[in-house]
Amino acid sequence: MDITFVNPGVDYMIRSIMLFQTEGEAEFWHEPLYHFYPQLDRVYAASLPFAERKNYIERTMRAVYVKAEDTINEKAVLYARHWNACKPQITAALSDAFGVDCASLFNELRCNLSMNPIEPRFLKERRYDTFYLNSEKGAIGGGIHEIIHFVWFYVWNRLFGDDYDEYERPSLKWILSEMVVESIMRDERLSSINPYFPRENGGCVYPYFFDMTVGGEPILDTLDAMYRSRNIEDFMLNSYVYCQEHEAEIREHILKAEGVSRC
Questions:
Q1: Which end of the chain has fewer CB atoms at under 10 Å, N or C?
Q2: Helix/strand/coil for 131
């Protein structure tokens, strides 16, 4: 589980940012950019046609990069050093959680430091992004979240034999994979080095899962009880059936939380 931390350059970062600034994107995904970068005028940007808004965001973020480049390069070194210190316990915890030898998996992972406050992962390419304003501890906490996805879908794919394209937002398989991170992260070897754990510290899953209920019960509690009582493959099978049975409730809650209006 070796990770190379790199500055991928401003062009990559602009492309990453624009993945979440497309027309019709939910507020939940596009608003963090304006929160972290007061250089961007949210009201002015919203008044522009999409092509002009894209150009405005790109011009502004290129100027930000000029000032941030040295910091990004320094953070890449810092994150790598902290990852190497934490890697043995992360590898052991995930090996136990998933019943596979993680020490022999994913030895060419790449972490791209980015100006994008949203941190996407790319399963096929075995890479993920991290926000450069993270501390080294925050980068590790977020990194554990992403690596859980890599291992989860490695085991999932062996079990179901489906297509990796089915694991992306907004599929139900993606939703389930995002919810189960909290249960896996409860392992003390992981939670102790994640500054965002427990929920009171910000949480390690999307906050709209915290108050999501199905049948009057918090869904994260239901999934956690299932996770504790089954091996990982049985848990994957049963938790997915559960989510399929309650998909309408799950999606309705997410749509409201992400700020998507229903026509």
A1: C
A2: strand
Neighbouring CB atoms inside 10 A of 3's CB total 22
Strand partners, 214: 217
pLDDT digits (tens, 9 = 90+) for 159-208: 999 999 999 999 999 999 999 999 999 999 999 999 999 999 999 999 99
**What pLDDT, in 10s, does the model give residues 124-171?**
999 999 999 999 999 999 999 999 999 999 999 999 999 999 999 999
Rounded Cα gap, residues 50 and 23, in angstroms: 7
The two structure tokens encoding residue 41: 């005028």
Give CA–CA dist 170/251, Å, rounded: 9
Spatial separation of the C-alpha atoms in residues 28 and 60, rounded to whole Å: 21
CA distance 182 to 67: 36
